[in-house]
Recover the amino acids of this structure.
């Protein structure tokens, strides 16, 4: 006889509990364990991100090319922060470029942002860069002793860097203007040669089968020839690439026994600096390459001395003078269109080079063991 | 009697398997991010691929590089998922995800700073 399961008499059995029907889960909160799993994986992810970010900032802090950059009333001040001095100053468009040890560094003049352009991982040596409105061109090599270097270009419009050409011995620094660059290197025959390169295509053309340190602006390439013991040229060689025409020009307004400081070209005007070590007299000369007419832009006398070669862009010529009391230097400018020379900036140190680009003036100077670059706007 | 594998590598519970699944998903996504950032950095001309195998595939072509990189990591994640019962799979996935996250963070900062 079956036994009763309950001892409570004939009470009706409780209805069985029915589980609610399963749904798709949509619109419901994730299960706590799911949330915990996601949190745990997020922690792993965060740990990795923190490690990567720390590595990035440690590496950045250890870089030896990064200078101290501060904005000034008229522009920027870039001060050498490590042992390697700054050098090889160039202005192009909105960019200021310089060398620091083997590093080629670019600074965006509007933001002050720095960019390391070179050298690439296979190179240890670089040469001073050149800049046009859009491009920066420089040479790299595995070592200075190797007779083969490569030319590299940075395109500020696309923010890309690429190899432009291979060259033999580096016989001059590059010069850049618009879409072209020019330099002197050993040719296939073994002798020196000046070449021009179309930067977008990389196509090279021979300018002259001879040695020279060329400067290019637009279609015009020039270099000094038959330089004497003081470096003063006996003539300027000029090549118009568009017209495939070559001519030479005797320098005008020369000082006797003067040391040659350097030269620059813009449009049809060539400028150079010369200084007579005996009298201390210095001179900045501008000469039209078509008619050969020269004019003295600045005469430096009275104990002051011409400190750097002049630089020209458009109608603006800039140069630097060391003050008569040797307390510092000053950067000066003059418009070719007319008007007297004006002081761009007083510099607490010795100016080594100057550069002009549009209305922007930049100079590289040294004070004690520290080099620095400053920029300012030239008055109109 | 417990097998040797069981004694050496403790088994994962359902929660651990869930964590492993999410880690593998993250790993795969980070791999794609690494690929895109590397390709972009190489196209800028400033970076070089330090991994010799990937360097070979990048030089062979973008399609080959994409196929190899996605293929290798996909196979790897599937293998880890296949051995999901073991705790070692979870540790391996966590380590790989952290390393990939570090690489991607480094590259992203480099690109942003450029």
């Amino acid at each position: 006889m079956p036994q009763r399961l309950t001892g409570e008499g004939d009470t009706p059995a409780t209805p069985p509990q029915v589980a609610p029907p399963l749904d798709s889960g949509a619109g419901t909160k994730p299960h706590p364990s799911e949330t915990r799993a996601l949190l745990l994986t997020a922690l792993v992810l965060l740990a990795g991100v923190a490690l990567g970010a720390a590595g990035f900032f440690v590496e950045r802090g250890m870089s030896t090319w990064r200078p101290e950059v501060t904005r000034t009333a008229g522009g920027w001040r870039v001060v050498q922060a490590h042992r390697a001095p700054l050098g090889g100053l160039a202005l192009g468009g909105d960019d200021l470029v310089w060398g620091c040890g083997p590093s080629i560094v670019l600074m965006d003049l509007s933001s002050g942002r720095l960019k390391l352009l070179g050298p690439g991982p296979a190179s240890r040596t670089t040469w001073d860069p050149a800049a046009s409105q859009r491009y920066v061109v420089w040479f790299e090599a595995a070592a200075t002793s190797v007779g083969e270097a490569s030319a590299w270009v940075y395109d500020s419009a696309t923010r890309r860097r690429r190899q432009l050409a291979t060259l033999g011995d580096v016989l001059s620094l590059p010069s850049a203007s618009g879409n072209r660059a020019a330099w002197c290197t050993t040719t296939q025959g073994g002798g020196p040669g000046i070449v021009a390169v179309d930067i977008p295509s990389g196509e090279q053309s021979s300018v002259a089968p001879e040695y020279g340190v060329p400067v290019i602006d637009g279609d015009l390439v020039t270099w000094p020839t038959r330089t004497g013991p003081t470096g003063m040229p006996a003539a300027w060689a000029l090549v118009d690439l568009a017209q495939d025409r070559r001519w030479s020009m005797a320098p005008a307004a020369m000082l006797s026994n003067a040391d040659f400081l350097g030269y620059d070209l813009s449009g049809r005007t060539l400028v150079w600096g010369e200084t007579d070590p005996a009298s201390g007299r210095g001179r900045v000369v501008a000469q039209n390459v078509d008619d050969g007419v020269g004019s003295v832009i600045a005469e430096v006398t009275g104990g002051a001395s011409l400190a750097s070669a002049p630089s020209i862009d458009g109608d603006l010529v800039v140069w630097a003078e060391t003050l008569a009391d040797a307390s510092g230097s000053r950067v000066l400018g003059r418009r070719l269109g007319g008007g007297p020379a004006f002081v761009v900036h007083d510099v607490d140190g010795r100016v080594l080079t100057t550069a002009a680009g549009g209305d922007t003036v930049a100079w590289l100077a040294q004070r004690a063991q520290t080099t620095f670059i400053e920029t300012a706007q030239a008055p109109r | 009697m417990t097998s040797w594998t069981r004694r050496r590598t403790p088994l994962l519970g359902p929660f651990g398997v869930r964590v492993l699944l999410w880690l593998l998903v993250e790993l795969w996504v980070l791999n794609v991010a690494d690929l895109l950032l590397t390709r972009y950095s190489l196209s800028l001309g400033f970076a070089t691929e330090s991994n010799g195998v990937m360097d070979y595939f990048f030089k062979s072509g973008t399609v080959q590089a994409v196929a190899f990189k996605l293929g290798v990591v996909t196979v790897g994640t599937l293998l880890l998922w296949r051995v999901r019962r073991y705790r070692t799979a979870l540790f391996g996935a966590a380590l790989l995800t952290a390393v990939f996250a570090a690489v991607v963070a480094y590259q992203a900062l480099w690109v942003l700073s450029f």
